Amino acid sequence: MIYGICDERFSPVCDAFARNFEARGELGAAVCVMLDGERVVDLWGGSADAAHTREWQENSIVPVWSLGKAMTAIALLRLVDRGDVDLDAPVATYWPEFAQAGKARMPVHMLLSHRAGLQAIGEPLPPGAFADWELITRSLAAQEPWWEPGTRFGYHVHTYGHLAGEVVRRVDGRSLGTFVREEIAQPLGVEF
User: Were 190 and a residue from 134, 146, 176, 185 both cysteine, which residue would form a disulfide, CB within 3.0 to 4.6 Å?
Assistant: First the structure.
């Protein structure tokens, strides 16, 4: 069952959403589209768990995956907006240990644009390492870029949050999660 609203101008969105359940085996999902400040699509349906024991609700909490990169960028850009971070300044200005392995002059903006050449860590890491903030940021600080920073693009799928988030932590003093919660989510009344 699909719930919510869909402005008739956006009926193809509603149809595609329904097809995901009917033809593609979608477990549970939601979509919301705002146009000029008006909610024109707000749909949800399916199950909130693989066992189909919980129906998807209007406010079901889900993993955000790569949206975390956008939230990390927003956090860092809040510091830029306040004048606490300069996107053209070297990362090492805020995170001195980052100056290792030829990265002394790499500007902050390269962390945000996936052009830092740090999309992976070359040394073997123990299981569960990505949950150890200090280990990963220490490893990234020591890592030589895989290419000359700024010359190529490479999606920093597993390192983006640690790279930009460590600048946030070094400048603000709070963890990235605490910063996002206190500076972005709570003021907006958002569960994130």
Answer: 185
